[in-house]
Design a protein that fits this description.
The structure is a homodimer of 427-residue chains. Chain A has 427 residues and is α/β, with parallel strands linked by helices. Chain A has two domains: 6-228 and 404-420, Aldehyde Dehydrogenase, Chain A, domain 1 (3-Layer(aba) Sandwich), CATH 3.40.605.10; 234-382, Aldehyde Dehydrogenase, Chain A, domain 2 (3-Layer(aba) Sandwich). The first copy, chain A, has helices at 16-30, 34-49, 52-65, 73-76, 80-95, 134-145, 159-175, 191-197, 212-221, 244-256, 272-278, 283-288, 297-305, 336-346, 359-368; strands at 103-108, 114-121, 124-128, 149-153, 183-185, 205-208, 234-238, 265-271, 292-295, 311-313, 327-333, 351-355, 373-378, 393-397, 405-408, 413-424. In chain A, the strands form four sheets. A seven-stranded parallel sheet of chain A has the order 10-9-11-8-7-12-13, with helices on both faces. Chain A has a four-stranded parallel sheet with strand order 5-4-3-6, sandwiched between helices. In chain A, helix 2 (34-49) runs antiparallel to helix 5, helix 2 (34-49) crosses helix 7 and helix 3 (52-65) packs antiparallel against helix 7. In chain A, 53% of the residues are buried. Strand 16 of chain A pairs parallel with strand 13 of chain B.
Chain lengths: 427, 427
């Protein structure tokens, strides 16, 4: 089998023939029945479970090549439990409803001309990602479930892990007579990324998953339409009428429950009227998690007086900054108008929340904050396809076209206008 | 009033302050009630009707500056009838249903956390177009109706016409207390196009309307997400079981009814089994319209034998070519498989049709052709927002994200996830 060795992924001149094969294979995937597509994923789940040793053996050379102190090492690591998790996630995607073939509109035009607008597979989905091998299985599962072929461009540091996983995916495809090019893993040479980003004839959509640098590179260089699963600069605004116990719980949860993710708190915005009372109440819990605070002038004095240890004066760069760590900035405002202006200026339009006891102000916030997910009296940590009941997601879109917020199975489709006539011509 | 002179549009250093003002104004437009937004358009319709002379006077210097032999002159021309048409189109858009505030999903998550997914205005819509001043009114109407601000970058050759039209739009906005920056006409200096295409902080979507060159430029240079309203390379495939009278009527309609538009026929694909019988039947009507035919080898012999006068041998470039004129290419195929392959290879994925007497083959075509609109036994000329019952359109999208096919009012929105809690935190 020529596609199973990691060596094969570094020696091609051009990936165009691979993209062409994926495009051809996409027709086979699109024409599979809903049931067949589910069965392939169930087959693969079983295969993954029975191949734990092989998968861990494939992961080993990648782990060996990465220094222990590299923070990406945990993302690269596969364990038996994580492999079993992959199989479970395959079974969950298999159970999700088919997003294709939905009739969005049905209308009779002049003289009985029949118009339908239906959902259909996108075709070929390209995903560019970094060191997490589980993305390989997640993306393949979502794409196959929705009748799409996919092009996977994983990071160089995970190539041996991805090679083993794609080999298993190919075995399941072959068992159902589907061309293996339906899930194509690209060689990791950087030059091929440019080829992928300009292959408008073969690739219908490109989704970058990973660092801000990767996303910016894709945005600047892609001719293929992209979905940006961008950074989350998330604010929690504690308005003066807030229940301060609720506010403390939400702030702490949004910051410390999992700070490395995009929906975690970056900036706490708080009304001046309650700042002196509220901010010291955060001390015990934030200190326990060693949260470093970048405070504006007013809040600096309050935290200093309260004896908060990990305190710095905020610079302009600390607002609009995604920390992804036990760090946050704090801004004191005069009231809701200044809070809305601050958020409009610095938000990355991902997830924003207000804690308030005033329903009218809560609704004003929901109406006026321009973000994918806007909350009242809840932690921003809920922005997630699974939490929202949409199943697995490819990422959180921070742009406004096609998909905003969790980019899940139901958005891996396009629409198609179908017109059935009996010789109709336009007059 | 500083915004009414055409001179003002050529002297600014940077358009960023204009884009910033449009972004601020977009909040006012979004917060207008459905009824207010309609009323503004009705007010503008009346104002346009009563300003016919002023509008025609504004059009005159643009007309004077364009040579009579320029094919764009008809597009630039405003007449009393065309101005009345603009007012009518404003009244039609006013009547269309509000696309914002629709609840797409409503769900209770854990412990009573309330989730909604609703449609909301995009924010700021940028449109880059060429010489047609009616686009100014159409885009402003669709954007205001859907709660969006818009940035209009019309062609230099229409700047005086556009200046007068935007002055009237501003009068209607002022009458309702809406900031005039909600409809912002940009100076025509080319350097500002690059500023617009990279202003991701202020502009949410850019739609290029016009030549393929413009669309390619936008695709290559825009960091703002775009909707491509691309070229239409449209095929009509006459399958061997077709009713040949019906086929002739559809082919002739698709080619000659209005050849300058994107949904007109470019390539006729015909089964070899019927080519000798069918192609000569087209002679009278195509000849009457002086249609120039670029024929492949087989069809060349048939047309030559039939004495077709405007006949040339097709080169490879004549397939996949958008003619926008009384010209078409002809390809003879062995059957449906070869026809599908030809269309897959050369289609611009706009509009494709099959004429067939075999329902099974018709459904195969609908299922397998990858295009925005796919037809059986009807002319491709129906691909149009108005024809599809969607009202006015900004263009026909040939890409797969967000909007495919007619890009009408209902797609000038994004979605927003609204979450209402009572102190919910993630465990």
């Amino acid at each position: 089998m020529p596609s199973t060795s990691a060596q094969d992924y570094s020696i091609v001149e051009t990936i165009i023939p691979l993209l062409e094969a994926a495009r051809t294979a996409s027709v086979s995937v699109r024409n599979l029945s809903d049931q067949k597509r589910s069965e392939i994923l169930l087959h693969l789940a079983t295969l993954v479970e029975s191949s734990v040793n092989e998968i861990l053996a494939g992961n080993q050379p990648d782990l060996d090549a990465m220094p222990d102190e590299d923070p990406k090492k945990d993302r690269l690591l596969l364990t038996e439990a994580r492999v079993i998790g992959l199989a479970q996630s395959l079974r969950e995607v298999a159970k999700l409803p088919d997003p294709t073939g939905e009739i969005l509109l049905k209308r009779e035009l002049q003289d009985g001309l029949q118009l339908q607008n239906i959902t259909t597979a996108l075709g070929v989905v390209g995903v560019i990602y970094e060191s997490r091998p589980n993305v390989t299985i997640d993306v393949a599962a979502l794409c196959l479930r929705s009748g799409n072929a996919c092009i996977l461009r994983g990071g160089k540091e995970a190539i041996h892990s991805n090679t083993v996983l794609v080999k298993l995916i190919h075995q399941s495809l072959e068992a159902f007579g589907v061309p293996t090019a339906a899930v194509t893993l690209l060689p990791t040479d950087r030059k091929h990324v440019s080829e992928l980003l300009t292959a408008t004839r073969y690739v219908d959509i490109i989704i970058p998953r990973g660092s801000d640098g990767l996303i910016q590179f894709v945005r600047q260089n892609s001719l293929v339409p992209t979905i940006e699963t961008g950074a989350g600069v998330c604010h929690t605004y504690v308005e003066q009428s807030a229940d301060l116990t609720m506010a403390r719980e939400i702030v702490v949860n949004a910051k410390v429950q999992r700070p490395s993710v995009c929906n975690a708190l970056d900036t706490l915005v708080v009304d001046a009227a309650i700042a002196e009372k509220f901010l010291p109440q955060l001390k015990t819990e934030l200190e326990a998690h060693q949260v470093e605070i970048f405070a504006d002038e007013t809040s600096y004095k309050i935290f200093e007086k309260a004896g908060y240890p990990m305190l710095q004066k905020a610079t302009e760069e600390d607002f609009g900054r995604e920390f992804l760590d036990f760090k946050c900035s704090v801004k004191v405002v005069a009231g809701v108008d200044e809070a809305l202006n601050h958020i409009e200026k610095y938000s990355s339009r991902h997830s924003e929340t207000i804690v308030t006891g005033d329903e009218r102000i809560g609704e004003l916030f929901l109406q006026n904050v321009d973000a994918a997910a806007v909350y009242v009296n809840a932690s921003t940590r809920f922005t997630d396809g699974g939490q929202f009941g949409l199943g697995a997601e490819i990422g959180i879109s921070t742009q406004k076209l096609h998909a905003r917020g969790p980019f899940a199975l139901e958005k891996l489709v396009t629409e198609k206008w179908i017109v059935r006539g009996k010789g109709h011509i336009r007059k």
